[in-house]
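Table S2 (text version). Query chain:
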Amino acid sequence: MKFLIFGDFHIHNVTNNDRFGDYMSTLKQIKRMVNKHKIDIIVCVGDFFHNRKSLEVKLLYEVSNFFATEWKFRRGTPGNALEDIPVVTNWVVGNHDCATWRGAENSLTPMFEGLDNFRVIDRAQRFYHTRYNLYPFNQKLTCIYMPHFEKEEIGGMLSEVCELARENKAQGDKVVLFSHFGVSEAKINEYSDENYEDDEYIVSQADLTIFDRVFLGHYHIPQRLCNGRIAYTGSALPQDRGDVGARGVIVYDSETDDYDWDWIDAPQFFTIEQGEKLEISEEEIKNSYFKIIKGSNDKIDKELVKKLKAMGARVVDFKDRDEVVSKKRMAVMENGKQRTASENMQWYITNKGIELDKESLLWQIGKGLFLGKNIDEILKDREIS
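Corresponding structure-token output:
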């Protein structure tokens, strides 16, 4: 069986026609990839949406209309009632898909529950996939799907899921996990080899040894861990200047047990120094976003702007080097490691004097801006009860 796996789509920004067009163009590319690779099952491993709490009406309309009218695939032999089977899309709930902080409600269910051949994974589920159906026979391939869980719950839920995997491994099945969480050995961004040792939803790759393959969302860098047994799909398209490099989808063939990425053609984000040689191809420049770093006393290089615009660059912004360095210092601890969300929250409270009442603070938490493990301590330290 062939799986197409993508994740961390983070669709939003519907008011920016160019940027929203990038998301819709990416969905159309994924659609073509499904047909090109003759995919049997599609899996989104979380964070299809970006904004928690609320979604724009236009976004809901455009996306739901696309999936209702264009996201239709079939596999097998046309005209053969036993083999002409619709391709199912399994949507794993990620942390950004949760409408509430604890994930009791999600934005995927109301979007997809009325559509044929869509399955929202809002609880751990196990499926026995065969070439032409999903019935529990010929159990050669067992797929376990686990949605996002908060830090207090993920350990216990992962233990339950591993127990399910052991049952099927004892029967000789191949067991594959699709989920959305952090693995401590994974790389979190392109600028540092550090990882989130204190991430909100993190486990070790040693906790995943029972699975033959693990495909994950949550970290945006496409990467392999544990000799390729674990893979992050990465974001389906670059989201911002932190997403550097190619992005795409994973195509996994369970019969050969091989997988690889098929890359998406999408605008890139580039950060360059004013005055340095431009070593980016015209093809890469087209429709991409540029941030140019200059000295505080340097004038903006208008010729560079003109050149990039002539080659099709979509946005060219300038930032003073001192401002960029200052922001980088804000985001780095004294020992050189990147702050976790909770540490960033403490830094802002201590150094910026931010005053928020409890309701406002919990609203920020609910939006996902300050998700960290020391929320209770922060509330206590600030004498908010």
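Notes on Table S2: Confidence is low (pLDDT under 50) at residues 132-139, 325-341, 365-375. The first helix runs from residue 17 to 36.
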